[in-house]
Amino acid sequence: MKEYKVEEHIKDFSSEAPSHEEVKNLAALAAADRERLLRAGIDEEQKAAGTFVHADHSTVYCNSNLKGVEIAPISYALFKHDGLRDYYWKIMDRERDAFTELAAKRKEGGYFIRSEKGAKVNYPVQACMYLETNALAQDVHNVVIAEEGSELNIISGCASGPNVRSGLHVGVSEMYVKRGATLSFTMVHDWAEEMSVRPRTTVVVEEGGCYISNYICLKPAKDLQMYPTVYLNGENSVATFNTVLMAGPGSKMDTGSRVYLRGRGSRAEIVSRSVSTGGTVYARGHLIGEAAGVRAHLECNGLLLSDSGMIHAVPELEARHKDLEMSHEAAVGKINQEETEYLMARGLSEAKAQSLIVKGFLSLDILGLPDALRGDIEKIIEESTAAGAM
């Protein structure tokens, strides 16, 4: 289905950007750019399995540090691996909407990340899509493959430069989790306030495979829309989604996850936690059970801190087999006054108490986040909570 009035999201942005030279190390980038990358999870001082940075339409840094991990610009991977004919545009429809059509037409970049069969990657792969030119439309296509029995952890950040106020980011991602493999994918968004963001992701999981998605967006873009889809095709395959959102005044965040449980004994969990300090949030979730022994749960929780905001939880369960169990729960409300008073009685100010409650609600204890990023996230929560309470 085509997105309504999608042309209005495209026409205001340019596809032209200056090329950027590739650097030998991240220290060669400007200090302001390195700071932005850090806030998106790219830490040059943290030990990583590899790092990939793409600025506008150019790959500026690509490095693999560990045996068993392959990282490359998508253009090189297509050349090296015979067009990635079993993976490229195989589980994502080019004509899904105008944004996928745009990415298919322009072919401006993206990354290829693969863990080899049986490889246990103990350190995360860092990847970042960076917008350095104001009012640019950036279109990328990523392919990720966790080969049989491997373990792969990716921290993927998206960010905009200090001189960027607006832009359009279209990110198409196709991910493959082979038999007995585990892929953990953490996405951190740190966009400018006038950004329009359109991630498009499809994942296929084979027998005994596990896909874990952690999504964090606490510096909201003006207009975010995403709805990743996972196909649990193999027996005893697993998918887990953890989504954490902070919607500031004027922002619109339409997010969700969909899982098709097709393998016997497959399991899925979708957990969404949203805080609105004046923005609009649509928290969606859709579980489709199609096989015997399926177990799945969907949870959408929201905190509304401002009368000018709105949170709309949309949980869906769809059963297509009699031998399965699926459940959901949804709750939207305000900060519990008794909890606030309890913390204030122990010496905290009202703002500090509410900030602590919001931190606990958002459950940010995600493994692999750099300490500097975690500290920045906590600062954002404190500032946003204080602003929402005014």
Note down, in words, how this protein is organized:
With 390 residues, the chain is an alpha/beta fold. The chain folds into 2 domains: 7-336, no CATH class; 337-390, no CATH class. The protein is built from 7 helices and 20 strands. The strands form 2 sheets. Strands 2-1-5-7-9-11-14-16-18-20 form a 10-stranded mixed β-sheet, covered by helices on one side. Strands 3, 4, 6, 8, 10, 12, 13, 15, 17 and 19 form a 10-stranded mixed β-sheet that branches. A hairpin with a 2-residue loop joins strand 1 and strand 2 (58-64). Helix 5 crosses helix 6 and helix 6 crosses helix 7 (371-389). The longest helix is centred in the last third of the chain and has 19 residues, at 371-389. The model is unreliable at 1-6 (pLDDT under 50).
Relevant terms:
390 residues; alpha/beta; 2 domains; ten-stranded mixed β-sheet; 7 helices
Short note summarizing the structure:
The chain has 390 residues and is of the alpha/beta class. The protein is built from 7 helices and 20 strands. The strands form 2 sheets. It has a 10-stranded mixed sheet with strand order 2-1-5-7-9-11-14-16-18-20, with helices on one face. Strands 3, 4, 6, 8, 10, 12, 13, 15, 17 and 19 form a 10-stranded mixed sheet that branches.
